Structure formats: structure tokens, C-alpha cells
Amino acid sequence: MTATLYVWLRGERLGELDKLRNGHLRLRFDPEILDTYGAGARPLSLSLPLTDKRVQGAHLERFLDNLLPEGSVRGALERQHQLHPGDTFGMLQSIGRECAGAIQLTPEDIAPGAGHLVPLSDGEVNQIVAQLPTLDPPPGQVVSASLGGVQAKVLLTRTEAGWAWPADGAMSTHLIKPEPTSDIVIPDLIRWEEWALRLARTAGLPAANAELADFDGRLALVVERFDRHDGKRAHQEDFTQALGVASRDKYETTRTEHRLAAIARAAGREAIAPATFLRDLLAQVTFNLIVGNGEAHSKNYSLAISHAATYAMAPLYDVAPVYLLNDAFQTFGHHLDGQGRLSYLTATHLRAEATTWGLADAAVCETIASVGSSVRQALSTCSADGIDVDRIGALIDARAVGALQVVS
Fold first, then answer.
1. Residue 230 and residue 210: Cα distance in Å, rounded?
2. In what residue span(s) does the HipA-like C-terminal domain sit (predicted)?
């Protein structure tokens, strides 16, 4: 027997998702969506162009799976909802009403409502954060919101009266990510992430707004969702979804994939201003290289998809100078001109890589120089909370100088 979920984008029905008897998933786009956008348009995903044929295969299954958490967080949710490991359809049936971007999935063919918010006391919020990575909803509630990624986090809604639990598909506005408890991670990681995001914004790059907050002794990073604007969902997808890559393969491990070039070509064709898109992509990669972000993999870049199905870079997020803090984190996440290790990567690789995207060398050099100069200026004014950034700041400054020398 076939089970069905209804797929909605910005509250409009997009199609039907079936789970077949063999366990595979199949998507059928509604004729009205094809009439609106035309065959070949990509309002849902770069990897899923509209067609009047049934859509099946790895790209569809990976796109949907990447809407969901990874690792122990995923396992905990599967146990809570009594699902078999890896049951993407079942998980989306349970928590698909509130996902990244503007996609929602419902078991019934009724447009998703606004859901409702359950006000939380300070004590309840502290308890929720204290229990992470175990998600412990307030009494009478279940987890009904999903966000990809491996780090423990909770999605809440900030109101004038305080924090609230988003129930029945209500829209969350923030994610709260506490300091990891594992011994193998970077000490003070969320402090470094807050500082790096602020450094990016000070340097003029769009980046997620974030602040540090103490929840009864557990420090956490409170990040404002940039896919939520004025009470509405804005659509986006990360690079794994755009490229049809499984979450387990978020790090580009071979020289032959050329993921950034693939994004540049495919998303650039769908952008209103392709040259601007390429410069924005290059600016983000340049910043991540200069600050030594060893977590700049394909789940940590995203594309913003407009109502007209045009593409742009979403703001930076999940940025931290992890390689400079611990040189064991050498993997950059993507290869640049065939090199993927931060101990060897330089702006020379970046310059050669970006010229394969369709940017003229002069535009490549101008963009790298602009980011390098802006980062150097931002370092002098970007203080930190609870960490000494002098040594790391000096290393970043030296890396920015090196980049400027390559393109001067």
C-alpha cells in the first residue's frame, strides 16, 4: 500500500510524495505548479527541476533526507517517534510541518495552518537546553520541527513575551545551540562561532545574526533564522540538497567532484545576476579560507530561492576558525583547484579555482582583495566575549595579507 505526504512551498501545494511498497520515494509535481513556473524551473531545489513525469531516485531521497537532523539527534527523534533508523518518510510525516526553507509536508491534503505557540517559562527553556542533545519537549508536546545538521540544537520561537515552543508546524524564529559536551571538540566553540559570524558581518559579508546567552549555567549560541522574514518562510537549500549529495558525504573528499564549480554553473544560470552570484559565492569561500574554517562543507553553504525561482547565496553560518584553533581540523570541506587541506591551501588555489566558474581573473582578484582588506579592518574593531582572540586574530590577519599578496 502506498503512503502519501502532501508537499507545500510557501503554503501553496507543490505536489505529492509517495512511499512505495519497496520503500522508495516518488514525487509528483502538481499541474498547477508546472503552469505557474514551467517545466525545467527549480522553485523547490536546484537538483529537482519541475517535470510532468514522476520523480524518483537518489537526488529526491537525498534532498528530503537532508531536511532532517543527523547522527545522535536523528537517532533520538527516531526512537521518540518509534521509527526504524533511516525512515526519512516516517520522520517527515512526524516533523515535516516545520523544515528549513519554505517546504512543509503534511499527511493530509489540507494547507498547513499557522500551528500554535506554547509559551515557555525561563525554567522550561533552561531545562530544554540542559537536556540537549536529547530533545525534551514541554509536557504534552512533541518535537514537530526539523533542521538538518549534526550539532545538538533546539528550534524555538521568540515572542514579545519570551520564548515559545512551536507546535503543529508553527514557525520557529531561532535555533539555540549549546556548547558541545564532547571532549573532542574545540573548547569554547560557540564563543568562537559567535565571534567569527560577527567578524564576517563587520567585514560586510551577509552572515547569520547570533548572540551568546546563558541558560542556567549552560552557555548557548542563539541564532536568528535567516529563512524566516516578517512572519513568513523564505525558501532555501544547502549545497548537499542542491547537488543531490547525501549528508554523510558533506565533505568533498576527491579532486574530481568540483562541487563549487558545479554550484557556480548550475545556480549561476538560475540567478538574476549571474556575475553577482559568483562574486558572492567567492566572497564566502574566501572568508572561510582566511579564517581557517575547517567545517566549510556542503551543508554549511546555502542557496536562497526566491518566489520567482531565482537563486542567490544565503548568508554565512556555522563559521569558526577551527583549523587555527586545532590543526587536526585540516579538511576545508571543498577542494580548491584540486587541493582540500587547509595546511596547503592558499589564495593561489582559490584564484585558480574561481576562474573555472566563469569569472574573469580581474573580478576574482578584486573579490578576494575586497574580502581580505575588509577582514583586516574588521579585526581591529571586533572584540570577543570570554575568549582571547589576539593570537587567532593575528593568524587571520596574516592569512588575509597572504591572500592580498596573491591578487595584488
1. 18
2. 146-377
